[in-house]
Write a structure and sequence with these properties.
This protein is of the alpha/beta class. It has 2 domains: 16-35 and 211-392, Rossmann fold; 40-196, Glucose-6-phosphate isomerase like protein, domain 1 (Rossmann fold), CATH 3.40.50. The protein contains 17 helices and 9 strands. It has helices at residues 16-19, 22-28, 33-37, 40-53, 57-61, 75-87, 123-135, 148-155, 173-186, 194-210, 221-229, 241-258, 267-270, 284-288, 326-344, 359-380, 389-398; strands at 68-71, 95-98, 112-117, 138-143, 160-162, 233-238, 263-266, 308-314, 349-353. The longest helix has 22 residues, at 359-380. The radius of gyration is 21 Å and the shape is globular. The two termini are 37 Å apart.
Length: 400
């Protein structure tokens, strides 16, 4: 079933055959969201080069700030979460992702504001950049070239790092993240080096190859994950702070690309209450009412209601700034326990495990496959992942 002009048509059950038909996938994805997502490695390389061309010496010359605020909305704000996680718990200053217009009231000359907007015109980033300039805070701006954000940065005589706008912001995570990380490196807050960036780009390239449209579902981890989630209510939990950033990112892309409602967060938080979902009407209680002789959809209850589908993103590595084994042991035990609880209640569980040495590469390995899975899931439901009418209408209704 092909989407109509509005991009909102689709069907309740996923079309498994479509996912193994590259020609049909291409027709279903006229905006090229799969292609843009496959460019993640190239985004890392391009943004590394573009940031190197920007003059960030003023940042380092003025010394360490009191705090760093990353201002933006959506994917732009998610770059702040990435920075905070990569910087780790021993980061010498607070790193705050700010998702509202303007900046926190305490921001002043001792602080740094990094305003991020893929379009270069989001009210949150523009308001933050203007407020930072008025208060005398150091400012760095990241966004589309020749945009309103660039104009604000130029008036403030602040560094501007151009990120060419080729795709929706949600497909530009890495192009926006790298400048933020390198600005933080100039401030002495992270130890990301060229080797880390190169390995991260290579990892993203490799995962794009594994998840390519002509790789069939049984060997394509993204298609397999999409089919596992299809028809369910996904619950995505990360085993560590780094994996939790990836879990929240997966929730973002599942909502936008596949239009699925998602519950996402940290396993630690889940153990304090949300793990009770496994005993609810979409979890263990649904399994208790299942007809053992029937063969219904594995993600549906006997009356056709969607069931929970658990996705655990497991980190399995320590932040480079940590030197103790205890956090890793706790995270691994917690992830094992939740998987066991889900199994006992008949709730299906998918696991994505991080790979790589640096924190940034491990994060990339947890983001790449789920990014593709969200697109394949939308395509399997007859949706164009590029065209999200509700987003466009929301912007029209909320802008003056």
């Amino acid at each position: 079933m092909m989407p109509g002009a509005s991009g909102v048509s689709g069907h309740r059950h996923a079309d498994e055959e479509l996912l193994d038909n590259p020609q049909a996938l291409a027709l279903q994805d006229p905006g090229g969201m799969l292609r843009f997502t496959a460019s993640a490695g190239a985004q890392v390389r391009e943004s590394t080069a573009l940031t190197a061309e920007a003059d960030l010496t003023a940042l380092s010359d003025d010394g360490r700030p009191r705090a760093v605020v990353i201002a933006g909305i959506g994917t732009a704000a998610r770059t702040g979460d990435v920075l905070a996680t990569v910087a780790g718990p021993r980061c010498p200053v607070p790193v705050i992702a700010h998702r509202s217009a303007g900046v926190p009231g305490w921001v002043g000359a001792a602080d740094v504001v990094i305003a991020v907007s893929a379009s270069g015109r989001s009210p949150e980033a523009l308001g933050a950049a203007e407020a930072a300039a008025r208060r005398g805070a150091r400012l760095v701006a990241v966004g589309a070239p020749d945009s309103l954000l660039q104009a604000v940065a130029e008036r403030a005589r602040a560094p501007f790092i151009p990120v060419p706008r080729r795709a929706p912001a949600r497909a530009s995570l890495w192009g926006l993240t790298v400048p933020v990380l390198l600005a933080a490196r100039a401030l002495g807050l992270v130890k990301v080096n060229e080797a880390d960036l190169a390995e991260t780009a290579t990892r993203l390239d490799a995962d794009a190859e594994r998840c390519r449209p002509d790789a069939e579902s049984f060997v394509n981890p993204a298609k397999s994950l999409a089919l596992g989630i299809a028809g369910s209510i996904p619950v995505v939990w990360g085993s560590s702070p780094l994996a939790t950033v990836a879990a929240r990112r997966f929730a973002d892309t599942l909502a936008a690309n596949a239009r699925y409602p998602v519950i996402a967060g940290a396993l630690g938080e889940a153990g304090r209450g949300r793990v009770g979902l496994l005993d609810g009407v979409f979890g263990g209680l649904a399994e208790a009412g299942r007809d053992i002789f029937a063969d219904p959809d594995e993600n549906e209850t006997p009356d056709g209601q969607s069931r929970l589908r658990l996705v655990i993103l497991r980190d399995g590595g320590l932040n480079p700034e940590e030197d103790a084994d205890e956090p890793l042991v706790v995270e691994e035990r917690r992830a094992d326990a939740v998987q066991t609880l889900a199994e006992r209640r008949g709730v299906r569980c998918d696991v994505v495990t991080a790979e790589g040495g640096s924190a940034l590469e491990r994060l990339a390995s947890l983001v790449a496959v789920p990014d593709f899975a969200s697109i394949y899931l939308g395509l399997a439901h007859g949706l164009d992942p590029m065209a999200v009418p509700a987003i466009s209408e929301m912007k029209e209704l909320s802008n003056p």
